[in-house]
Amino acid sequence: MTLLLRDTETKTAEAPAGDTPGGETPPEAAPVATACPKCGAPVEPGQDWCLNCGEAQASRRLALPGKRAIGTVLALTGVLVVGAVAAAYAALDQNSPATPAGTTQVAQVPAPQPSAAAPAPVDTAPSDAAPSSTLPPTTGSTDVPPASSTPAPSLPRTTTPSIPTTPSTGATGSTGSTGSTSTGSDSSSKGDTTSTTRTSTTPELPDPVAIRLDPTAASLYDPYRRDIADATTADPKKALDGEAGTSFPITVADGAESIGAGLVIDLGSKQGVREVDVTTKTPGFKIELYATDETDLPPDITDTRWAHLKDIRDVGTDTDGKVKVDLGAGTTKYRHVLLWLTTPPTDGFTARLSEVRVFG
Q: Nearest CA to 223 among 275, 313, 276, 290?
């Protein structure tokens, strides 16, 4: 009996402390729940992400992959950048020239020799004997062409190097003149050639040609119905009949200071007008020349369809009653030409147009 009790106590002492009588394992302690640091929602142990806001938990943040790889990439990138900068600097330092090109070129130019610029001037007096065609070159100088038979003018010494020039034919017909002499000859000859070329290439206008006009092409232009005494008896055709003894008169009342009427000529078609000749027996009046390209005459002189060409004061006073009016090249073409009389003659109140000729 005593042995059984001892055996039982021995088994009880050898049993593990955590085992309960009867061989049953005690239950484990329940895991402690945590809260999300961002939204406060409960997070189970071992849960890497919050199911409410998606925030990474502490266990996930501590175990984020790629930290070592990112550090390695950044370190390698820094090494490569430093190496590239060093290589570029070395390449630039090797390619840069030691001295500027311009400085080297200037240093290669030899110093000018004043003695070699030009030979000393030789004053030769004219003699009765015929000079030789050429003289031997000056000793010690190979840059200056041989002098011609004509004595060269005295030239001042310069510090510029002697530069041989292409010989040119001067006024005396020689082909070996010095550089300065040939340059002057070339300049003058080129200037003469240019002047001659410009003169020859400028086209000259031919002489004006009289436009053939029938006497019926002339008519009175009186848009303001002025009191012209001889308007009913005067015939405008007499201004174009080619007879110096006839005329077309325009008379105003005594004491009138203006006329305000004129003679209009129909050219039959649009033509360029270069000159108008007027002959009168009553000099001293004033004419304003107008023209239009319209087939029908404008209603009055202020109409913009009239083109003002020129004014003639004191018609025929100093030219024995004749005047020529130059109108240029006649590039603009007109259908009608108007001689608009504005003031009466110096003596009397009748202006007579003996002959009117139009040139194109």
A: 290
Write out the residue range of the structural domain in which residue 311 sits. 215-359
Please report, as a single letter, which amino acid is at residue 25: T
pLDDT tens per residue across span 78-124: 999 999 999 998 888 776 655 555 444 444 555 555 544 545 555 55
Tokens representing residue 210 in the block: 């009289």
Prediction pTM value: 0.45
Which CATH number covers residue 221? 2.60.120.260
**56 domain residue, yes or no:** no
State the total domains in the chain: 1
Assigned domain for 322 exists: yes
Instruction: Convert the pLDDT of each residue in 17-35 to its tens digit.
Output: 444 445 555 556 666 668 8
> Is residue 123 in a domain?
no
In 3D space, the residue among 271, 303, 277, 281 whose CA is nearest the CA of residue 290 turns out to be 303
| Residue 268 CB contacts under 8 Å (≥ 6 apart), including other chains | 213, 217
* Residues 359, 277: Cα–Cα separation, whole Å: 8
- Residue 281, SS3? coil
